[in-house]
Amino acid sequence: MPVTFAELGLNxxxxxxxxxxxxxxxxxxxxxxxxxLMEGADVIxxxxxxxxxxxxFALPIIEKIDPQAGAAQALVLTPTRELAVQxxxxxxxxxxxxxxxxxxxxxxxxxxxxxxxxxxxVQIVVGTPGRILDHIQRGTLQLGQVRTVILxxxxxxxxxxxxxxxxxxxxxxxxxxxxxxxxxxxxxAIVKLAQQYLHNPQRITVQAEQLTVPLIRQVYYEVGRRxxxxxxxxxxxxxxxxSAIIFCRTKLEVDSLGERLTARAYAAETxxxxxxxxxxxxxxxxxxxxxxxxxxxxxVAARGLDVEHVSHVINYDIPLDPQSYVHRIGRTGRAxxxxxxxxxxxxxxxxxxxxxxxxxxxxIQRLHLPTIADVIARRREAFKEALRETITQNGLxxxxxxxxxxxxxxxxxxxxxxxxxxxxxxxxxxTEDKLTEPEEEPREYRDNAGRGSSDRSxxxxxxxxxGSDRRRERDRFGVEPGMTRLYIDVGxxxxxxxxxxxxxxxxxxxxxxxxxxxxDLFDHFSLVDVPANQAQQVIEALKTTKIxxxxxxxxxxxxxxESAPRRREDTKRVSDRAGTGVDAGxxxxxxxxxxxxxxxxxxxxDRRVGKRKHK
Length: 615
Description:
40% of the residues lie in helices and 14% in strands. Helix 2 runs parallel beside helix 3 (53-64), helix 6 (129-138) packs across helix 8 and helix 10 runs parallel beside helix 16. The chain starts with 11 loop residues before the first helix and ends in a 33-residue tail after the last strand. The chain is α/β, with parallel strands linked by helices. The protein has 22 helices and 22 strands.
């Protein structure tokens, strides 16, 4: 039998907060980690994004916080601003009964706001390594009373070049601290970090389960988080399920989605742990009897359901592990029938989805979102099929009389067309579709899709050949295919490091660190290669932020060297990735950043930092 949160030793206040959030039972990573952290041991946990690991470390921290003390007692390091905010919000939700204070700290937010909050005293600090280190150096963040340090998504922080910053921060914390490291993969650098800074850690790994569901067609759609409900409605209109179970993670999400579907005139009922047996029986009777087509449910509530005629299972929220996935989709394709399992995938859940796909022994196909025209065409086909079935059945005599009465005035074709129009309604005008799918992942990320959890360590074996291919591409074209070069008006003289640029772009533009290409640092400016289809997004995001305290003006680097005026001090000879000497004019600045062509004065040799070692 699965354990409950109460059995993990959490106090009543925490249990009340969890219940109000709609969580019914701990996930595997929560069940195995909370106990260990409550006992005070260090932990190395290998867990995918989306497995519930935030609660796995947040709940034990909340249990140990002294709400009367104003000093920082726990520190959580995350690779991106988005994750820092998400984790901080989770702490607020879990700890609202204890009234603990939490502060997210990240670049791009006015530092004055963070300074005021820190001076007032906070118990939990969640932030990105660069901004945390900035506060330490300013003397505005003291870590002498920190009891627990969490390194969340450590492999992502490694990819973004934050390892040195993490080590510097850890040295500022007490030796007696408790440390927990969470990472989807365990490359050598992460293992070395754990060996150096963790004390006799317990290793926790959630094993993937092999799936065997041969009669179920499995597909998924990539959707933007804000478009999720509209995408679901579009899919329901296109698929026209005879009966479907739609899975959400929590009771609150079940109730919310059920209300929105009912408001859209879908026949839907909800099922979760707060329903008593009478209510549950009523819902199931209506679903089995066909009075409602959609059943919105949590995993726990749907456990043990035995409904043979379910045509579709839809994962509105992606399951947290392969075991939950196979339990969910097993609700369809029963009694020798075929079924369809549909999963809605948001960009942040791609890594977890890759783990689930690796556990499946059948292909899971990605589909493109059906357009409005597709939905209309599908509706017409369904109507024609219904007509064929009706014609083959008896009971048309009274309708034939009506048709014959009108046949003297109109042709049979016009009569049928008018009847279709009345039944189907006026065909809606197909306007521009506002629903769009998320951008494709950058090439490097897609190349690794579907591989095992040792992707990043394996990458070193493949790196030399792929790196030489890319060097040849850059020798010929200057920029890797699919990438665009940006000019950023800060450089070595401003104290800029590659990690600063990677962190700023990843945080502000919400682009994975691994998607960023070559970085060239000069005395007064920097050149960064980013995915071409996201270049403008990066420029707009960086216009509102600061790097190392400097406001920046990013722009596209001009591809035509003859039309690229440059400042004299920024135009000395540099070396490209392959080691071939090229003039800095091959990396021209945006128009208006200087005047005159380069004349090598031979004096101030401009420094240049090589490309990031990680890709």
